[in-house]
Amino acid sequence: MRLDKFLKVSRIIKRRTVAKDIADQGRIKVNDKVAKSSTDVLVGDVLTIKFGNKTLTVKVKQLLDTTKKDAAEELYETVSETFEKIY
């Protein structure tokens, strides 16, 4: 599954176009390698996403083409969530 589609289906990022823009800016890594929006995501991959002052690291648990809002968090496991201080 494409990276941008996974981020949308898992509801980590609400819109696929936003996920594509963030990935194409180099703010997403898959297994410690900078990824584009078209990068294939597999079960077991570790995604690191930078949102401004927040860095979210998740591990892919399963891949589904569609999901309901309640089941979206079952697609990934949060490894870490860190915040940088802004001075």
TrEMBL record:
SUPFAM superfamilies: Alpha-L RNA-binding motif (SSF55174). PROSITE patterns: S4 (PS50889). It comes from the Bacteria. InterPro entries: RqcP, S4_RNA-bd, S4_RNA-bd_sf. Keywords: Protein biosynthesis, RNA-binding, rRNA-binding, tRNA-binding. GO terms for molecular function: ribosomal large subunit binding; rRNA binding; tRNA binding. Residues 1-64 form the RNA-binding S4 domain. One of its GO terms (biological process) is rescue of stalled ribosome. Associates with stalled 50S ribosomal subunits. Binds to RqcH, 23S rRNA and the P-site tRNA. Does not require RqcH for association with 50S subunits. Key component of the ribosome quality control system (RQC), a ribosome-associated complex that mediates the extraction of incompletely synthesized nascent chains from stalled ribosomes and their subsequent degradation. RqcH recruits Ala-charged tRNA, and with RqcP directs the elongation of stalled nascent chains on 50S ribosomal subunits, leading to non-templated C-terminal alanine extensions (Ala tail). The Ala tail promotes nascent chain degradation. RqcP is associated with the translocation-like movement of the peptidyl-tRNA from the A-site into the P-site. Belongs to the RqcP family. This is RQC P-site tRNA stabilizing factor. It comes from Loigolactobacillus backii. The lineage of its organism: Bacteria, Bacillati, Bacillota, Bacilli, Lactobacillales.
